[in-house]
Every structure is written in C-alpha cells, then in structure tokens.
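F.,

This is the one I mentioned.
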C-alpha cells in the first residue's frame, strides 16, 4: 500500500483557488497538487462530453502526481462529470486501485443548506453548465428536501472576473440584471438565501452585497468544502494515514505560467505565494 500520498485539487482554471485557499488554511499540514486547466477555461458553456473528457484528463494527471484523493473544485465539472467518474470510469479504469477517491463540491454545499431550517427558499447562481445539469436540484432532493431551490445561470460573470473586472459600473450592471431576473421569477421577498455556486463569484461579493437585500444570507463554498474535507479525513483514517505532511503545494497550469501567477493573486491573496508552478501542455485544446 502506498504512503506519502497528496491531495489533488482540480479546477477548470483559476476559480478553484477560491476553494483551495480555504482548504489550505484549514488543513495546512498536508501536501497538495493543484491543476488549473486554464488553457480550456471556462467550462461553463461547454458540452457534457467536453467537460467529462477534460475532467478525466485532469484527474488522470493528478493521480500520476501521487494524489490519491482528488477534490474537483469546479462546480461545472462536479455537475457534469463527477457522477460518471465516480460510478463508471474509476471502477473500470482504476479497478485495481479501489482506494482512489474523487470528490466534488456540490454535495457538501447542498448538505450545508440542509442546516438552514425548514421551508427556506434558496436561489442558486451558477454557470450555464451547472444549471443545465440540474445536479444541485438532484442532490437537494436527497440532502436538503425541505429547501426550495431555484437556479439562474449567470454566464457573463466569469468572463468579467477573469478580465479583472471586480467592481465598477459594468459589474454592478450585470449583478443587478441577474438579481432582477431572479426576483422576477420568484417573488424577491421569498428568497432567503443566495448560493454562489461558482468558484468565481465570491470575488464579486462586495458588489453582490450592494444589490441583494441584507436579509438574504449569501452562501459561498470555500469554508463549506474545506470543512467537509476535514470531516471526510476524520471519518476515513485509512486515507488520512496515507497522506504526506510536508506542507508543500505544487501548482500546474495548462496555459502560460505568468497569466496563472497574475490571476492567482486575485483569486487567493497577495500573501499566498505560488512558489512551485509548472506548465503541463499535453492536453489537446478541444
Ligand atoms: N469553475 C467554474 C465553476 O465553478 C467556473 C469557471 C468555468 O466556467 O470554467 O462552475
């Protein structure tokens, strides 16, 4: 049985860093490998087949780097690809390695909604791919059946954020537009919670807070996913015992390193030093 295993974090690009930041804060002792598929980001508008293929390639790469537990930090990839990866691909391609695990972000997020109390209405903002998959609705029917969950795709927010537009008139316009669309579908006063189910959206929190009434609780995923990973490791000592603890983080990007470095400062913080960063350019670009 192998020891010295790392935890892999996979994302379509930079967004997963908003989740990873919290994982690293809560569980700093472990070794991590982060792969951001920046060359093929965003996944939000891509087909089910493309997202599945890209996610499988990313997960394969992370297994090769010695990861045994992988968190798919991207909502779109979790929504589109995780079920096929867990239920078919892992059990065939990696049937001789039954201890490998790939976990996503949707289930822990939905489970946290279950704690909000009965008869709440939660509005979910996410990419087109996540919304179309209905994965959050499906998970909510099992793990938060008392929550009335409604969804809205906000396809223009990711490109704005990746262009560095985190405040100002342009962002304010689109946040207002999406809020008004949400409210016109569901009476605004009935919305109790706004769930930001996209890795990028927490970066717009100050702008979103300006538009969304104070009584609406805004939920982001970083702390939820980090807490759920901690809980998973406590419940699975057989996995936890295999993890190496040298406090090391290796970052890989499928596109230019300087671009990754630049955006990583926005998605994490200036204090998060990206000391080990390499490009991996083996994947076809479509
Ligand atoms: N990481 C994606 C998500 O959380 C957003 C960016 C993308 O579309 O690839 O859904």
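My design for it:
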């Amino acid at each position: 049985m192998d020891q010295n295993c790392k935890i892999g974090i996979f994302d379509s690009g930079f967004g997963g860093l908003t989740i990873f930041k919290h994982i690293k804060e809560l569980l700093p002792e472990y070794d991590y490998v982060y792969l951001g598929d920046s060359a093929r980001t965003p996944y939000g508008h891509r087909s089910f087949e493309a997202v599945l293929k890209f996610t499988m390639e990313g997960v394969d790469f992370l297994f090769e780097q010695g990861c045994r537990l992988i968190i798919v930090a991207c909502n779109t990839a979790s929504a589109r690809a995780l079920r096929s990866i867990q239920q078919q691909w892992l059990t065939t391609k990696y049937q001789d390695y039954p201890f490998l695990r790939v976990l996503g972000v949707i289930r822990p997020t939905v489970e946290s909604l279950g704690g909000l109390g009965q008869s709440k209405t939660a509005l979910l903002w996410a990419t087109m791919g996540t919304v179309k998959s209905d994965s959050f609705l499906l998970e909510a029917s099992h793990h938060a059946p008392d929550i009335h969950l409604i969804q809205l795709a906000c396809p223009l927010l990711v490109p704005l954020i990746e262009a560095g537009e985190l405040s100002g008139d342009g962002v304010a316009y689109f946040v207002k537009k999406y809020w008004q669309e949400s409210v016109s579908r569901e009476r605004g006063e009935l919305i109790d919670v706004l769930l930001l189910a996209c890795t990028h959206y927490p970066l717009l929190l100050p702008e979103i807070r300006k538009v969304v009434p104070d009584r609406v609780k805004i939920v982001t995923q970083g702390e939820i996913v980090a807490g759920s990973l901690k809980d998973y490791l406590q419940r699975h000592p057989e996995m936890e015992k295999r993890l190496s603890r040298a406090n090391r983080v290796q970052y890989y990007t499928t596109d230019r390193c300087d671009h990754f470095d630049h955006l990583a400062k926005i998605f994490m913080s200036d204090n998060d030093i990206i000391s080990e960063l390499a490009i991996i350019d083996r994947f076809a670009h479509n």
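DSSP finds twelve helices and ten strands in the chain.

Talk soon.
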